[in-house]
Amino acid sequence: MDRTGTNLPAVGEYNQTVVLDAIRRRPEGITRSELAALTALSGMTVTKVCRRLLDAGLVDEHGRRTSGPGKPAAVVKLNPSGGFAVGVHIDPAAVTYVLVDLSGTVRDHSRTGTPTAGDPSAVINEMADAIEALIAGSAVDRSRILGIGIASPGPVNVEDGVLLNPPMMPNWHRVALRRSLAEATGLPVLLEKDATAAVVAELWFAGPDSSRDFAFMYYGTGLGTGLSVSGEVIRGISSNAGDGGHITVDPDGPMCTCGRRGCVGYITVPRALVERAVLDGVLSAAEAGNFEDTVDVDAAFSRLAALAAAGNPAATAILTDAARSLARAIVVIVNLLDIDEVIFGGPFWARISPVILGALPDAVRSDPALVPPHPIRFAQSAIPVDVAAVGAATLVLDNTFSPRPSALLLAAE
After folding, report:
1. Interval 167-194: pLDDT, tens
2. Which residues does 9 contact at the CB level (< 8 Å), separation at least 6?
């Protein structure tokens, strides 16, 4: 969805982000007159903004285009090397680091084991070293690094930049990550929930005609939900919105850690599916390994997914039941927000997506509790590497370059 600007003199910075956002969403390039028509800004304002963007190295001119009478007009395109951001995704199983350019392209990435040191300072030092190695290995101009974005399991305190108590990460209790990592790297740092970061990424990469109302089902070590309504990320008063994992989908199901039965985030995550595979005789105890070990669960989950992909009836039944459980939770979310699209992604998603998407859409559409009359689309995130890590990086880009109407309020102060 394209924004329109304003010709009031007090909002030049907002207009600049409007123009840059319009340029980056058109990789084929756009002329100044086309920008003026698209953003509702005057030709003079667009010309001044483009001059500033050119001087800052954020855009380039690429040839000329004839679109009517008069001389051909210069075509303006985004300069991908005009800015870079580092994205970090913290997961109980691993930490993923990505370096993303202004176009959203992943220039480099790395992955390490999740630090287990009890001392938070050791954790910070290990992450800072990994970030510096990523930047150095990519050979990009460090002065062009705009900042670091961190995506973490919730709950988080975004305002203070503190990881409160991420599940399955006992050594990360109340870690003041934002401030400490900023001090260690000398770069600005932003913190976000992983599922919310995934939504930021989807909106950053979305085309002009993409849906702006969707839920992102983040399937990792745990299950998270990110939300977009009218193109705005829904964060909630404490930036912890979207925890759909405790939606009850089976009142007679297993007891969740929260004390309720049948929570979708308890019965559909990789560990739960591996446990059921052992109970059903699909996997042996030796194949499953230690349920408390994220590496063992990862390997066993891959075995289960491979069996289902090969047509094993018992393995397929486990994933089909998981799809039905997810469908019940999705119906609740769709009814609540009246959205028309559900996007799936996360580090464990691709392995089970063929079976899940084979059963889930019909389960949603045929659910008698479904209220909205409009069609609901189901899609997979096309973002490479790690959607939460890329989302963390685009969080920095979005914070720097996306137009925010709330910024106009500053003119009234």
Report:
1. 767 677 778 888 989 999 999 999 999 9
2. none
- Please report where in the chains the tokens 């599922």 appear, as a residue: 195
Residue 251 corresponds to which tokens in the numbers above?
A: 């009142």
Span 129-166, pLDDT tens digits? 999 999 999 989 999 999 999 998 878 888 888 877 77
Across the strands, what pairs with 380? 344
Question: Residues 243-248: contacts with CB within 8 Å, 24+ apart?
Answer: 243/154, 244/329, 244/332, 244/333, 247/328, 247/329, 247/332, 247/333
pLDDT band, residue 113 (cuts 50/70/90): confident
Task: Give the end-to-end CA distance of the chain in Å, rounded to a whole number.
Answer: 28
Per the structure block, which two tokens stand in for 336? 């609540």
Q: Give the phi and the psi of residue 233 in degrees, each rounded to 5.
A: -70, 130
